[in-house]
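so im writing up the methods section and need the Vitamin D3 receptor B record in one place, dumping it here so i stop losing it
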Amino acid sequence: MAKTKELSKDVRDKIVDLHKAGMGYKTIAKQLVMETTAVSTSTLTNDEFDRNAPRICGVCGDKATGFHFNAMTCEGCKGFFRRSMKRKASFTCPFNGSCTITKDNRRHCQACRLKRCVDIGMMKEFILTDEEVQRKKDLIQRRKDEEAQREAQREAQRPRLSEEQSQVIATLVEAHHKTYDDSYSDFNRFRPPVREGPVTRSASRAASLHSLSDASSDSFSHSPESVDTKLMNFSNLLMMYQDQGSSPDSNDDDSSKLSMLPHLADLVSYSIQKVIGFAKMIPGFRELTAEDQIALLKSSAIEVIMLRSNQSFNLEDMSWSCGGPDFKYCVNDVTKAGHTLELLEPLVKFQVGLKKLNLHEEEHVLLMAICLLSPDRPGVQDHGRIEALQDRLSETLQAYIRLHHPGSCLVYARMIQKLADLRSLNEEHSKQYRSLSFQPEHSMQLTPLVLEVFGSEVS
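--- predicted struct ---
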């Protein structure tokens, strides 16, 4: 017992010194616990300091809640010791101070319970005064308030969409859903696809390209490596034929047999109608003059169709799947509508690249609207107004990307690059369309809407 009192006096002296040096009681407690663990009078074993070991109150054996006043105790013994010290209580044991304190009988003998508290190292110097308790509460509350303020600042700095931007996106998504039928049920109303008949040189090349995909379709994965390998093979096969001339079908006696032209002409005409419907629902589009609306639609329709067709593009065999087998279109099918690989090879590359971006639907519809509202289209009059509409869409797209792709600074740039790719595809498409439409036997297969949109230059 003498050893306990002597050690306690040393500890008290140290507390006074540390406190005079400006150290807070909480810091003092942590330091003393570390220093006195090896030699303290506490009966705690090394196992009780193990985080995974059950923590037991050194006074009564109940479940401990932590270190209180320099000893591992339960909440009950912590409160008992604090009250006893504050009241300067003096207890007497009726059994000569030999009571064993347990969870069940700890209330029976306050004297032995208090003695046990002191024996395990509990110290009244660690008890805060009422003023210290209040200061501690104030400090805790101040820290909570500061953390709440910091969280509010972080929340204010987080990327977010304005109410207007959210509404624009919702409008475009709804417009897309209303003008894009992913069941492709209307395709049955087109003139039927005819894939038989004489095979042109361009169609023969396309068949070779398509068989390249089919040969390994079972093992073809969506990984970037396998897609890139396919595209490299696609390009290599195209180069094998380049010595045969840039217009491979020009000398073919059977070049007039474009069996897929009627069906694909109907498909394109249908797609143009849907693009027009989509455009009319873009915020601000209908406020433009009729002349500017027409100029924008004529110049951008094929680009928006190419963007939309990515939804049906299949990476496994590089085809467009629009429902049943009759409406699964490969490169070979499109060559039978008069187009050559000078258009189709970069088109497939474009579709693969766009697919690999894994765009959200919201990003896809914004990209279509930005594509359509380009102020540099031929025939546009009110450049400033159209540019303002496009800028608003671009800002919305960038805000959406910041929100959903944090840290991905290249996503927007890659999407805008796709618009540049579409311009090149549009130019090649126009060239091939003019070549096709100059032949009466082919132009008569086209619909009035296709002739109107693609047939006349916008001045």
